[in-house]
Amino acid sequence: MTAATHTTLFPQVPQDADAVLDGLDPEQREVATALHGPVCVLAGAGTGKTRAITHRIAYGVRAGILQPASVLAVTFTNRAAGEMRGRLRQLGAAGVQARTFHSAALRQLQYFWPKAVGGDLPRLLDRKAQAVADAALRCRLRLDRTELRDVTAEIEWAKVTQTVPADYPAALVKTLREAPRDPAEISQIYAMYEEVKRERDLLDFEDVLLLMVGILQDRHDIAEQVRRQYQHFVVDEYQDVSPLQQRLLELWLGDRDSLCVVGDASQTIYSFTGATPDHLLDFRVRHPHATVVKLVRDYRSTPQVVHLANGILGQARGRAADHRLELVSQREPGPEPDYTAYGDEPAEAEGTARRIRDLIASGTPAAEIAVLYRINAQSEIHEQALADAGVPYQLRGAERFFERQEVREAGAALRGAARFGTNDRLLDDVVDLPSQVRAVLSTKGWSTTPPAGSGAARDRWESLAALVRLAEDLARARPDATLADLVAELDERAAAQHAPTVQGVTLASLHAAKGLEWDAVFLVGLTDGMVPITYARTDEQLEEERRLLYVGVTRARRHLSLSWSLSRTPGGRPHREPSRFLNGLRPGTTPVAGHAPAAAGNAGTASPGTARPRRHRGPVRCRVCGSTLTAAGEMKLMRCEDCPSDMDEALYERLLDWRSGQARQLGQPDYCVFTEKTLMAIAEAAPSTDAELAAIPGVGIRKLNRFGTDVLAICAGRQLPDGDSEA
Predict the structure, then answer these.
(1) C-alpha angle with apex 127: 124 to 131, nearest 5 degrees?
(2) Which residue, 280, 361, 265, 374, is CA-closest to 320?
(3) In sequence order, which ranges of 258-344 are alpha helices (DSSP H)?
(4) For 466-490, what is the mean pLDDT?
(5) Could you say which of 14, 46, 587, 606 would form a disulfide bridge with 19 (CB–CB 3.0 to 4.6 Å)?
């Protein structure tokens, strides 16, 4: 849900340029009227940045200062670009190009390829995972699903940072980036992946940017043609620009400075893809005479939500933190954010679902509620809990609205009714537009009463219901609207990927929630080890995790709930602690000074698929708080006894049961097999190879040879046959 959907869906187009400025606050008006020279807009969450820049473009167009076809507005998602096009259309500035970097570059590449290269443009590769897997097999390397995803992400990072395969290992050292497996192997796979693409005449999305950069650098005639076409540029979410995108932007601009950038360094959450806020923070260095406007009036969230958001950033460190914006809420006070600890994850999901059901019963629409989590794997338990509670939901990041089969079928039926409606008996007794739409869609599965429960039938009904509501909104705004008008509206929305609202609670990761907002937000799973994620080790990585929580908090307009579970499963050991980022902010806590990042190379902190480095040879430090460890048990765990654990409790219980059986067979005490501390370290590390298991203190070569096969099988989730044990 975006700010745009909280206003009238079909507003009247402003009569003239001055009317475009109506309703803007002083800072937004300053942005809208700054039409010359470089402009940098530092816009905090909820401050109306999209409103400011779309009104800026529309004001320039309506005043005759900007020609619509000469403006290129770029952002980072199709949804954001679609929303921008929709707003510009409503402001009377149709014809302005609003695209993602990739979409704009692809359009230019398709146009200039015959002239610059000749022949047909190679086919675009939508998903590169299979090509990466094929490349790995050619290198005699087999990747499991997690490794394939991680290696693919590394190749994408290398390409957007303009790193060639041979330079990849050195780039890791320079940027302090950790590779998911041996850098030389990734370099080899990367080089072979490029070879596979050449053989199959394929391009990936990064190639689109790279090739367009190459053409603009080498062909001055083409560069000049592009610059004659586009003379004014607007870049949204500028903190997420990669080095490759920045280079493309510079080539588009040439020696001109007709550029407006908008961003917030405190919302940089995609650095793992190559995004960096440095271009935003250095804008005044590159453009000393730039106009800089700060937007800090928060129109989205209540003072209580804004206070928490400011508090989270108040504890931040680093360059982005030095440029943070202190938000000032413009809304009436609301309820305080609430904090809830649950005994286990099922209890957290059930409790969240109950509270959501109560919110809906009290009048909050389901579409105005979201459940946000750190990783997508957390969604399943909340999907089940909401379904059990009879609450409709939708997964963010699932299939696009206009690509759903039922939406395509409904569109075809509406188009047919608009063309031949006078001969359709369904429409004989209905006159107004909403009734006509209901009659047509009743043949496609829509009914006045939604189906019970969740699943495909409910998803289909929700899609059709969204079309009915759109017809109702259109009829209210334009009483004389016809079916043909609705079909035209749907066509424009489909082209812009501007979907109508589906009535269901949104489930989304914190990353996927960027740019969205809801009346009520439930931030779940906020344990140390999840937020921040356990493999965030360096200061920069930890600060990005803090910014991710900030983004989650600032999605809420009024109701904000933060929760965590003390253990994973019912009856599990309650070892978990709430996120350290909430220390000093939730009641009864104080800030913890100097939370040092975990030392790289400690067992149990790597992400799935990463090889674990060797043990430290100097002082052993806690991988959570950085303190020097002296106790033997703590050194085995590589963390202080009191620091939060990211242990898999279910795995730990299985290891305990296995150890008891081994001890009985051997006629020895349990600790002679493995101590509890060693089992805890194993459960935290979840090793998958002999080398990873041997790296855990307390294992050693003798126990590795004796028990390793069993332990690795248990860690992999395999059931050991009765009596089939290396002991």
Answers:
(1) 90
(2) 265
(3) 278-281, 283-286, 303-314, 319-322
(4) 87
(5) 14
